[in-house]
Amino acid sequence: MEFLANNLAPIMFAGLIVFLLMGFPVAFSLGACGLFFGFIGIELNVLPASLMQALPLRIFGIMKNDTLLAIPFFTLMGLILERSGMAEDLLDTIGQLFGPIRGGLAFAVIFVGALLAATTGVVAASVISMGLISLPIMLRYGYDRRVASGVIAASGTLAQIIPPSLVLIILADQLGKSVGDMYKGAFVPGFVLTGLYTLYIIGIAIFKPKWVPALPLEARSIREDNGKSGLASLGILTLVSVGVAVYFGEHYGQVLGYFKGEAVSNVPLDETIVVSMSVGVGLAFLASVVNKLTGLGLLSRMAERVTFVLIPPLALIFLVLGTIFLGIATPTEGGAMGAMGALLMALARGRLSGKLLTQALTSTTKLACFVVFILIGSTVFSLSFQGVDGPKWVEHLLTSLPGGQLGFLIFVNLLIFVLAFFLDFFELSFIVVPLLGPVAEKLGIDLIWFGVLLGVNMQTSFMHPPFGFALFYLRSVAPLTDYIDKLTGRKIARITTGQIYWGAVPFVVIQIIMVGLIIAFPNLVSGGIGKHEALDTSNVQLDVQPADDNSAKEMDANALFGPGDGAASAPVKPASASSDPLEAAAGK
């Protein structure tokens, strides 16, 4: 019994692993393990019986957490956009745009995947949409099955790291950081990863051109009356818009200072990028509208089609991310605006129906309940785990690793990579991240940077053969048997599960390279410094000058509680009071 009492934390963690390996649902495994070992701890006098009194308060705290409201909002937005045909229009238009070059369809999938990630934030919706729409076209025109499968699955997982990602919301909540800061931190890494995907396809187009052929001339449907592609007109419009956006970005600080009435010396990079893009995109849209209404004929059909198809999702991105980055809205408010914007876009397309809305709301409710139940289970587990000094055991285990910060980061990323074979990002976020966050903070690692690093690493959980969810989503829509193509009449061979798995491997390697780049170049994570020095609190002293009774009575309340807080602020805890987290959790 003494051995059990002294080693209850590692035994409890091992018990959770056993529960999970037995196949029990994660939420119930966490809750059952927490209650079981909590009662054992009470019987062994390791835990006070009053500890469990804190459990209802913790669960009520989950229900009152405004940050988690962003999850159903962003999920609803993504599902409505996916079902309203936006992905179909984007893939068709961008496929026509990039079709004349080798790898054009793969480039279109990557581009649309990044755009869908920035509007939907839902991996399943992106992978299934692109699998249904792009995969038959890629197979029709002779794409290698491994390349086609891999690029669709990997591009869909960009929704994992490009804001408004659901995993970033959960990571911010578990690490005790702002969702807006986490979004800002992931902004640049998400698009760097998109660039790495593009470089891989460029390499294939150079060295294995037969794997990624260009679209034949007869497949390019968006053309002018004289047979020309109209790309020159689009190129000029793009150059003008980009030039205006760059010029505005260089002078954004001055514009901001003019409206604020004061000099602005330092403007965040992510804010500058979002606002400048919005200006350039707005100019292109205005030019296209004027050209269409006046019939001037200055823009080609391709230029008009690309502009009118791209602008609505880009406007939605600014509505959501722009307002968050500019500090106009919180992530929850941004999600609500995004959901409303998605409803308006579906209505404008004539795609909004009772059936679509019912399906989207049902799926959103299921996902929200799934998240909340896992969070409740993890709360039960963490309460008992903290009671048996589990965080101290994890801290001693991880801080004793050789190599300091770098050794810790290498171990943690290897741990997440291995666990991602068996757990998805929700489970990793609720089980592992709460144990790693305090240790990272004690080692002097910025938690925003750490959260983005974990988010990129967790992205591999969708791509790992054989349990990656993105691979399952793609398998569900990929052809299981040979079929006759309706357009060409040719027989198209099926896609095997092995081809899907082998197609995913290069992109998993790219994701691992991205993890290494973030560690090597921490400033890739915008919105904060990657690593900082830990604050040494061991020698902090508080000197209070004694005061007589009369002066104490005349002391202003603001001097005690701070301006604007008054008596509602929490009183300062006396130095002699206990700092035992068990007593605090039990309300003593």
From TrEMBL:
Keywords, in A-Z order: Cell inner membrane, Cell membrane, Membrane, Transmembrane, Transmembrane helix, Transport
Low complexity composition bias: residue spans: 567-581
A Pfam family it matches: DctM
UniProt-annotated location(s): Cell inner membrane
GO molecular function: transmembrane transporter activity
Cell membrane as UniProt keyword: yes
Positions of the UniProt region annotated as Disordered: 555-588
InterPro entries linked to this entry: DctM, TRAP_DctM
Membrane topology: Multi-pass membrane protein
Sequence ranges assigned to domain TRAP C4-dicarboxylate transport system permease DctM subunit in this UniProt record: 13-247, 300-524
Membrane-spanning residues: 7-28, 67-85, 105-135, 147-171, 186-207, 228-248, 273-294, 306-328, 334-352, 364-385, 405-426, 447-474, 500-521
Gene Ontology, cellular component aspect: plasma membrane
PANTHER family (alphabetical): SIALIC ACID TRAP TRANSPORTER PERMEASE PROTEIN SIAT-RELATED, SLL1103 PROTEIN
Function field: Part of the tripartite ATP-independent periplasmic (TRAP) transport system.
Record-given protein name: TRAP transporter large permease subunit
Organism placement in taxonomy: Bacteria, Pseudomonadati, Pseudomonadota, Betaproteobacteria, Burkholderiales
